[in-house]
Every structure is written in structure tokens, then in C-alpha cells.
Amino acid sequence: MALASCGNSQNKKNESPAVGSDKDEHGCIASAGYIWSEVQKDCIRLWEKGVRMESVADKENTAYIVFAPDSLQVELFFSGDQPNEILDRRSLPDGDYVWNVEDDDTKNVRQENGKWTISQRGNLIYQQVDEAK
User: Cα torsion at 100, 105, 111, 117 (round to 10°)?
Assistant: First the structure.
């Protein structure tokens, strides 16, 4: 009986986790590429729902911007350990919009010349990546 118990525990150690068993607290399955989006209130794949951005300083650093369904907020997802940021939409005098946090030194998201940009303190830090056609 002791041998049977040892054999069973050994088999369990060699088993791979079941696909889809890596759900987070929101039910998102990371192994399938899903991540929780606070502004979408859903599990999403960034490359399907977001706009891919590239750092102007280091092409290895990327970000995705994901808009809320009503476009009143945008969520920024960064590569590495940088936390997500949620920015609110504000109207500009010329009728355009910018997403930022009022009276704060956060990032600003806006569309310039048909491309999305992320800037901070007036400096461009990320720009939209041209997708291959």
C-alpha cells in the first residue's frame, strides 16, 4: 500500500497542468493570451482589441492602448513590469480629444496625423506601429 501511494504522488508531479487551468481572478486564461481590461470589463487579447505602440527610445519596449466601448477612457498596457494606467477623455478647444488625468503629470494619448501617440511632459514616448499589410 505504501508503494502505491508513492507511485501516485510521483505520477502527479510529472503531469502537466491542464490547458486553461491558469485562470486569473477575473477568469482570464493567460496561456490563451487573455488579460483583464478594466475599461473593457472583459478578458481580451491585446493584439485583437488594442492599438500597438512602440517606444521612441527603445523599439523593444511596447505598449497597447485599449479604449472603453464608449471611448470615455483608455487603458495603457506596457511591456515589462510597468503598471497599467487608465486615462479619461477630455475635449480640446479645437474639437479634438486627448486622454489623460486632469491636473496630473501622467501620460497623454492623442491622435496626431492619423496615428496614435503617447506623450509625457510634452515629449513623445510611444507611437503607433505601422501594421504590415
Answer: -130
